[in-house]
Amino acid sequence: MDDAAAIRPDLVPVVAGVLRDSRGRVLLAQRLPGKHLAGTWEFPGGKCEPGESPHQALARELAEELDIQVESSAPLLTLTHRYPEKSVRLMLREVPAWRGEPRGHEGQPLRWVTCAAMTELPMPAADRPICRILDLDPRYAISPDPTEVGIDGVVNAWQDSLAAGFRLLQLRAPTMPGDQLLVLARRLGRMAREQGARWLLNGAVETAVASGADGVHLSSRALAEFGERRRPEALLLAASCHDARELDLAAAVGADYVCLSPVQGTVSHPQARPLGWSGFADLCAHSSLPALALGGVTPAQLSQAREHGAWGVAGISAFGGR
What we know:
This protein is of the alpha/beta class. The protein has ten helices and 15 strands.
């Protein structure tokens, strides 16, 4: 699937690289005057030529732009952005190894920046959603429903997820009364902070703020009802999506990333028709936001998910949720 030739003809295939220095900072390049979106800072890369794979295109572009030789690269995420004049299919790739010292071979300024600093820079609209998720764990552990496992079961599963090394978690307790949910959320939040993990509450924005959550996760129903509301800017916003309409709605409300499901059939949702990896890839080609593959997916399938356009993977039982 990681093939520029498979991109729809109405989308311009563009590949860009994420290069990190020894401090974890990411390299950005500034677009020169006279170019499309001049003055903005972007991940270095460029358009795929006919017949090129994304890796081949990125290696060529970085040799031309940065005077380096890419030794390896791997898919990180893909998304689609529609500018007024064209629609771009952006394929972002991690570049863990290269030879040479990056320099602006075409005279363009370069800058190594932290993920936090990226949000303060003018960037192309297609790159903007990436800034919020680059320093997040691409493995999203979702808590089991307390009506099925009890509160102790949720706490134990949360602890298991943290012990397994997952650092992005979601508390999901759809039928728990608000006051009880707040108590549980604060308890789990303390556990997450002690391990340096980020976590989101599947529920009301107000409860998320009161609990000290790092963000809010909207169910597909909550997404449809979100309307013109805006969450506090410091909070992450994620949403559950199942089709192109919901993906568009998530983008409209300013979500940072989405869970796209179900990829495979699951025992918990036997009535849901699986997308399959091909259907998942087609919806990823529509999304302007980073997407996590959910539904019958395990952490071991992260690379496979990324080959089909995902940023990451999400789940319950396979992620410590029992």
